[in-house]
Design brief:
By secondary structure, the chain is α/β, with parallel strands linked by helices. The chain has a single domain (3-273), classed as Rossmann fold. 39% of the residues lie in helices and 24% in strands. It contains nine helices and nine strands. The protein has helices at 15-28, 38-41, 91-101, 121-133, 135-151, 164-175, 194-197, 217-229, 256-273; strands at 3-8, 48-58, 61-70, 79-83, 106-109, 157-162, 182-186, 204-211, 234-243. Helix 8 (217-229) links the parallel strand 8 and strand 9. The chain is globular and about 45 Å long. The two termini are 27 Å apart.
Length: 274
């Protein structure tokens, strides 16, 4: 396994940077498709149940997420907000939420596309660009997800996302740092702006790919360096020979070896911090 681990103790995502990342996504995913991957379609470690729940609304229309928890759960649980990749809240993301629930969490897979799901890269690009252009709406969606989990008795709240969802995992931590107890970023857009990162007071897990055109290693390492200089708690892994999206719940870039190792890192991180 080609990994480099950097663990340190203790948003300046500008519009131009966002546009460049979107352009890179369009190029990188031009021939991709939302085929299910083993990341999501591996059976949970214990029996879980999932159901659609309305956790927010837009212009009077209820927006559904996918809530999952272990069948034998007794009492309140730590919770995870699960943020989809650029395809939207599809069955693979629902299954990813259920697999995470199997580790002993209450999970809510949110829907930042308000009911729309892409099947082709051009659709996904259009929807992800619209979300980037209306960040306030996305943050309002996440805010309601946090409130929903609190009302459900969540003892702590973490957030995880892949690709576009990884970027939103960091945005969630930056904007709701008082409510978020752990953030997991799978090769999502990150910043090295220390003023923006200074608010983070929760453990962060960053998982990145060495062969990544969308979030290049140089950008990921700059983020890690700024976090280290700020003495923030970051657990950082670079999978040198893996492509972007190597552990996505769906897509054609799945890397079994890297994804399995990243899953172990993820579950261990959650066990320590939630």
């Amino acid at each position: 396994m080609m990994t480099l681990a950097l663990t340190v103790s203790a948003c300046a995502m500008t519009q131009s940077a966002d546009e460049q990342e979107l352009a890179n996504m369009a190029k990188e995913h031009a021939n991709d498709s939302p085929v299910p991957s083993p990341m999501a379609w591996t059976e949970p470690a214990q029996p879980v149940s999932g159901k659609a729940v309305t956790y927010t609304s837009v212009d009077g229309k209820g927006i559904n997420g996918w809530l999952a928890k272990p069948d034998n759960a007794a009492g309140d649980l730590p919770a995870l907000i699960v943020i989809h990749q650029w395809w939207g809240l599809d069955d693979s993301i629902r299954r990813a939420g259920e697999r995470l629930a199997g580790q002993g969490y209450l999970t809510l897979a949110v829907d930042l596309y308000n009911g729309s799901v892409a099947e082709q890269p051009k659709e996904a690009m259009r929807m992800s660009r619209a979300l980037t252009g209306n960040e306030e709406a996305g943050l309002a969606n996440i805010k309601d997800a946090i409130a929903y989990l609190k009302s459900a008795g969540a003892t702590k709240i973490g957030v995880i996302g892949w690709c576009m969802g990884g970027r939103w995992s960091l945005l969630t931590a930056l904007n709701f740092h008082a409510d978020i107890d752990a953030s997991i970023i799978y090769y999502g857009g990150v910043t090295d702006d220390k003023e923006a990162l200074a608010v983070l007071d929760m453990p962060v897990l960053g998982i990145f790919a060495g062969d990544d055109f969308i979030v290049p290693p140089k950008k990921a390492y700059a983020f890690a360096t700024s976090m280290a200089e700020l003495k923030k708690e970051l657990e950082f892994y670079m999978y040198r020979d893996a492509d972007h999206a190597f552990s996505n719940p769906s897509g054609t870039e799945y890397n079994p070896e890297a994804a399995a190792d990243a899953w172990e890192k993820t579950t261990a991180f959650l066990e320590r911090n939630l």
